C-alpha cells in the first residue's frame, strides 16, 4: 500500500515600505532670534544646535529624572531643521540645547516641547525653538555720556532723568568696529522695574542704528509718566518676556545703562484746563466697559450740554454787564451836559460872565 503525504506551508512577508509607513516623524527647526523678542518674522535658521528626543514616560509634559536618557539626538544643519523618524505612538519631549554663547527665547519659559504621537504614520511638524546669540561687544564703546535737555551732560542716567526730559547718549566706537545700538524709552506701570512688571512696559520712543568708528549720539524723549530708559546693544525688545524668561537685555548680555522714574501713572491722560467762565476740570477716569461705558457716554453728553448752557449764560451775563456799563456812562454824560446847560442859563439870567457859556 502506497501512501503519499503532501505538506504545504504558507509564509507572509511584510514589505519594508509598509513598515516605514507605520513609523511616525517629529520635526521642527531652531531659529536665531535676531531681535531678542522671541520668535518673529526677522529670525534666521540657526545651525549647529543639538536637539534631543526623550520619551515622556510619566506623561506630565515635563523633562524629569523619571524620563531617563535621550532616545535620539540631532544637530541642525544650514536650514536649522531637525527630524526624528521611525517613532511609535506615545508621548515625547523635544529638547533645545543652546550653545555656550546663546540663550533660548522661545518657548519663553521652557526648553522642551511636548509632542503626543497618536498616528502611526503621522508627521508632527512646527516644533520651533529660538535662541538669541550673545554677540554684542561692549568693549567697542568708550567715552559714554548723557546730555539732558540739551544743557547738562552727565556720566550716568541714574538720578539725572525726569519724566518729559529729552535724553541724548553720546559715545565713541573703536577703530575697526561696527556696533548696533539702541536708546529706548518705555512707558512703565511703576517708577521701578521688577521681574513681574517688566512685561507690562510699552515702547514710547526709540532711536537705533549701526555705527562704525567715531563719535556718535542717539536721542529719545522720556514719557510724561512712569518710565524706563535703556541704552543697549542690538535691537530694542518690545515687549519684554515674563518673569523667568530670557527676553530681557540683562539675560542677553547687552544692557549698557538704564534708569527708572516718574511721578504719575501712564494709564489716563490729564485733560487740558478750560478757560475761565467754564466749569472746573473734572479728574480723569479710566475708560469703563459695557453698560458702564454707555452710562458714562450719556453722562458726558449731558455734562457737555450743561457746560454749553452755562457758557452761553456766562457770555450773556458778560454782554449784559458791558451794555449796562455803557448805558451808565451815557447817562452820566447826559446828566453832566444837562447840568452844564442849567448852570449856563442861570449865569446868563444873573448877568454873570462864564467862559463856558
Brief account:
The chain is an alpha+beta fold and about 350 residues long. The protein has helices at about 15-20, 290-350, and strands at about 25-30, 45, 50-55, 70-75, 80-85, 90-95, 100-105, 110-115, 125-135, 140-150, 150-155, 165-175, 180-185, 200-210, 215-220, 225-235, 255-260. Mean pLDDT is about 85; it is low at about 5 and about 10-15.
Walk me through what this model shows.
With 357 residues, this protein is an alpha+beta fold. It has helices at 16-21, 290-349, and strands spanning 24-32, 44-45, 50-55, 72-75, 81-87, 90-97, 102-106, 112-117, 123-133, 141-148, 152-154, 166-173, 179-187, 202-211, 214-221, 227-233, 255-261. Strands 1, 2, 5, 7 and 9 form a 5-stranded mixed beta sheet that branches. Strands 4-3-6-8 form a 4-stranded antiparallel beta sheet, with no helix packed on it. The protein is elongated, with a radius of gyration of 40 Å. The termini are far apart.
